[in-house]
Design brief:
alpha/beta, Rossmann fold, six-stranded parallel β-sheet, two-stranded parallel ribbon, magnesium ion binding, ATP-dependent dethiobiotin synthetase BioD
Length: 228
């Protein structure tokens, strides 16, 4: 049966791609593919805008897909996507995001791990948000918490926003992005007590290119997927 799993985060650059690609590689119970519907900060290669995060998801997938399937909205400037789209007279359409997801599911019966852009309340226009689309499709949501100063507030506010959007927050993953964070374990312990959903893993500070898979609780994640 086709399923989706959405990965969001407390901020930009706190490890959504690391976690999403590790989930794609680590989930063994079903064919798993990646989808990065909106990406900013793309580079022009051979006349085509390409995003490194989307390439990572593409490489992790159980089936090799065309790049355009994985990343339908590729925007060059590393800025808020709706602003980048406006600069090239483009509107981000939620029905196009859905059409892209359908095309991926047409390739195989699969779990599609959908990586968001930025945080939960990412505008796709001046009156729509990517979170609207996620809520509409009732995707289970995993929140990546970037462990750095301020993360408790960021995590709790984001969890609250997800739940108030009538989306299905199912778990969180701590990603230790600041190797010098003071009282890191105390902050993680606080999140265990304060977050309304279970923790699916604590990823230590990793060198570039390392996988987070060994630090994720795939038994718990796969049980969650069965129940969603």
């Amino acid at each position: 049966m086709n399923k989706n799993l959405f990965i969001t985060a407390t901020d930009t650059d706190v490890g959504k791609t690391l976690i999403a690609s590790s989930l794609i590689k680590g989930i063994k119970s079903e064919t798993t593919l990646g989808y990065k519907p909106i990406a900013a900060g793309c580079e022009l290669k051979n006349g085509k805008l390409i995003n490194q995060d989307a390439l990572s998801l593409l490489a992790a997938g159980d089936i090799k897909l065309d790049y355009d399937l994985v990343n339908p909205y590729a925007l060059k400037p590393p800025i808020a996507p709706h602003i980048a789209a406006e600069q090239v007279n483009l509107q981000i359409q939620h029905n196009e995001l859905t059409a892209g997801l359908v095309k991926i599911h047409q390739q195989a019966e699969a779990l599609v791990v959908v990586e968001g852009a930025g945080g939960w309340m990412l505008p796709t226009s001046m009156n729509t948000f990517l979170s609207d689309w996620v809520s509409e499709h009732q995707m289970p949501v995993i929140l990546v918490v970037g462990m750095k100063l301020g993360c408790l507030n960021h995590a709790l506010l984001t969890a609250q926003a997800i739940q108030q959007s009538n989306a299905k927050l199912v778990g969180w993953i701590a990603n230790c992005v600041d190797d010098n964070m003071l009282q890191q374990q105390a902050n993680i312990d606080s999140l265990h007590k304060l977050m309304p959903v279970p923790c699916f893993g604590v990823v230590p500070y990793l060198a570039e290119g390392q996988s987070a898979a060994e630090y994720l609780d795939f038994e718990q994640i796969e049980k969650m997927l069965i129940n969603c």
